Fold this protein.
Amino acid sequence: MSSKENLSVTSPGVHLGPTWLRVALGDGRGTGDFHYRWLRHQCDRARHPLTGERTLCSSELPDDVRPRRASLDGDALTVVWEPDGHESRYALAWLDAHAYARDRVEHLPPADVTAISVNAPEGITPGALDRLLATLDARGVALLRRPLPVAHPEDETEALLDGLCARGRLAVVGTHFGRIEDLRTDNTTNQNTDQLGYTDAGVELHTDQPFLEQPPRYQLLQGIRSADEGGENFVVDARAASRHLREIDRPAWELLTRTPVRFHRKQKAFERIVDAPILRDDDRGFFVRYSYFTTAPFALPFDLMEPWYRAWDRFARLVRDPAHQYRFTLSPGDALLYDNHRMLHARTGFRGPRWVRGVYFNPA
Ligand SMILES: [Fe+2]
């Protein structure tokens, strides 16, 4: 669950997050974020009436402690807990004195599609392509929108590639899918169509070709023909998600950056294996490899398997939250360009003759 989706207000000055709440600490004192477990553990009633000593060990609490409701009244925060309706009261002055996360700022993956959209009513002009590349640099993804219908976008593919490469930034990369990949269920030109992209099934978030030592840096997806139903695209900024995870759960983030995962792709006429962590964020820059359908069975020491799954799942749930995704549908003539070392991409299942063209690039 994400913090954004579940952040709700139960009374002025109190917000409920997925595992923590935010409370206004009073005039000029800012806000304090407190984990539910910490609050429940610190309950004012779990004290001996004579000595004031704590009577509760956190191990006695359920794993998923969370509030039924929380409210500010005067100078105290009141929380009613699930599942037993237990009530706790915390003086704001006490919370202020023990605030361990004051005025914390959340950096969540952005979802505003207008911020990545480049409107191109004139078609594939040099100006439109320059804006597309500038947006790609700033956001890791850019979406060329054609407000007027385009009858045969497939006739524009070469001009689009020439125009992008002419800017001196990008060079087309051929892969085992060929130079131009026609993603459609009736594809007959590619000998490696035994993968989800060539079906009408949904494909959840992934990076392309993580099983290569050096996956292609960019991918262009050009909309040629719409589906009758479904076929929505979505893209997530994995760099933002990784940095958010580092801020809320550093041990999970460190496991994901240190633990090699085996990516294994075996197709009719192709096989590759690479062992590499899914996240890297250091002085060499950010780099994500992520694909739930090409990871080999995890081979980790027994003592790491539980924390590993916890870390993987936490990252996956973060990026799979629609509130953290750019979501849109490619109309014929639209084109999506994204950084395959930074962004994750996906599509929903569909019905009908959807046709999307894919082309990879590396820096020229
Ligand atoms: Fe893909």
Q: What stands out?
A: The radius of gyration is 25 Å.
